[in-house]
């Protein structure tokens, strides 16, 4: 289901020959615009950011809100892979026109900035990485500067709409786009589509992404199953009905619970040309970096006296947005109409080996596959890694860098994942080929795996979530990427569980390593993967599956390889995968969450329960002082290795004593 703009042959020797800085790519674009471009940028609001606060030598910031109008040429080779672009309505010039919202946060005097543009591929219209970087709110009001991570260093921040959606309100507003519907010469396009729902009490239950082409209920099928691998059972005809063409009412069958999977296959209509999200990002960034004015002569707010002042651009994005970054690169959109690189650096977070389901007819852009939910949607197809490899199951040869290598527009990349991506997002395929053999990443790529989990709540999970915040490590990866592309400073090496050194193992082997924990036996669930056939819904999957590996564990059940966070180097608990609780499809994985299973506090407590893990009393004979010392040493080691910034290490170390006191606090009722 992935669409490529080029049919690529094998590209060997991917390396730094394809990595340049922006200054090596020539002068700004000529006055004659390309057909696919931003034609107009309307700044509708320009206000002081953060209450007018000044940030050191950089000074005050301002927030510009606006709307961009762009056109895409269906005949442009750069757009050849955009699904249904040829079926979109055209303007008088024969081009497809669309609009999207734009946020620009910049120093009032942009010449005082550091010359780097950070572009956030927003998540469902939300600038969540901006919030992660500052550990504050996502808006631009006075209280949302937080640590002022970006502003203190003089970055210019841009985010723009790449997902179709109705404009919304809020502070900040969602940053979305308006894309056209595809038609067949003006006639309605229909086709098979599949919806999946869980939890009948949720707002999304029964909602259709696309309108039904017919309300004839005999033309649709609704099934349910408790666990992902259970056989599908048809919901009787009297158990569901259409409320209207975008809503289905379902009476949950007896025996189902909040984790039951409902799968609805129906005939949909009116596909949206979602693939324009790729060209929207490409063409806005090309305008931002290389064009002094739009087609009307409206000045580019990132230029001064008609000249650019931003020399480098780095893309960041988390989860959905991290997957979008990988797909943007794979589908060849890091090259503009003049052959220039769009992003010099990229830092996708918690993307695993996934791409997106954006550039396809009847795409559902918010879906992402996991072990239990949304498992059967497109986006987990070869290629999985940056290097070019050959897949024996499909016979294809490809890689995420194949297109940018062909055009000499590859960026420098640090991808940061969490332990949870090995279980739910096939992350081991980033460091192996699809035969399971270890492989080296290209020299312009680094891969960090954090010994923690992607944080997304713990609703329905059996145990409390892993409490370790990954944001400090996201900041360190971004900082290392900027120093790499701007200053030529080599970043820290790839650090992840790997079959090459035995730190990534089979599920069976991990089960042998897992400790004895009362009432918490080993759970071997992972998201398996074969080759899927999406010509039918639900898709068919090959019996042969790709070889997948999981992290090797120590005696506590924690990771032995990757970026070992201080909470694992000096542990107070086992922090592993999250499992669904009773009443929530018990036994399958709980989304992308991690879990926390505290250590026994004393040797007597451990012995009485039969727990194989050392108690806090045994592992830290010096009590709080020893724990705080060991935690601090682990944090300092990460700073020395550049996986953690010094300021973040100090913040983490200041919290260690409180974590110790919480761990040793009485958690059992007084028997008297």
Keywords:
672 residues, 19% helix, four-stranded antiparallel beta sheet, 22% strand, disordered C terminus
Brief summary of the model shown:
With 672 residues, the protein is of the alpha+beta class.
How would you describe what is shown here?
The strands form 10 sheets. Strands 1, 2, 3, 4, 5, 6, 7, 18, 19, 22 and 23 form an 11-stranded mixed beta sheet that branches. With 672 residues, this protein is α+β, with helices and mostly antiparallel strands. It is built from 14 helices and 31 strands. Helix 12 runs antiparallel to helix 13 (646-654) and helix 12 (623-641) crosses helix 14 (656-664). The relative contact order is 0.11. Helix 4 links the parallel strand 18 and strand 19.
State the low-pLDDT regions, or none: 1-32, 667-672
The overall strand count is: 31
Q: What overall form do the CA principal axes indicate?
A: globular
Give the % helix.
Answer: 10-25%
Query: What profile does the largest beta sheet have?
Result: 11 strands, mixed
Total helix count?
14
Radius of gyration based on Cα positions: 25 Å
Oligomer: single chain
Distance between the termini: 64 Å
Structural class label: alpha+beta
Overall average residue pLDDT? 93
> Strand portion, in percent?
15-25%
Question: What topology emerges from the helices and strands here?
Answer:
Elements: E1 37-48, E2 54-55, E3 59-72, E4 96-107, E5 116-120, H1 128-134, H2 149-153, E6 156-160, E7 177-178, E8 183-184, E9 187-188, E10 190-197, E11 221-225, E12 233-234, E13 240-244, E14 247-250, E15 261-269, H3 276-290, E16 303-304, E17 307-308, E18 312-318, H4 320-330, E19 345-349, E20 389-390, E21 397-398, H5 402-407, E22 412-418, H6 420-424, E23 445-450, H7 471-487, E24 504-505, H8 507-513, E25 530-533, E26 540-545, E27 550-551, H9 566-569, E28 573-574, E29 577-579, E30 589-594, E31 597-598, H10 603-609, H11 616-619, H12 623-641, H13 646-654, H14 656-664
Parallel strand pairs: 5-6, 5-18, 18-19, 19-22, 22-23
Antiparallel strand pairs: 1-3, 2-3, 3-4, 4-6, 4-7, 8-9, 10-15, 11-12, 11-15, 13-14, 16-17, 20-21, 24-27, 25-26, 28-31, 29-30
Helix pairs in contact: 12-13, 12-14
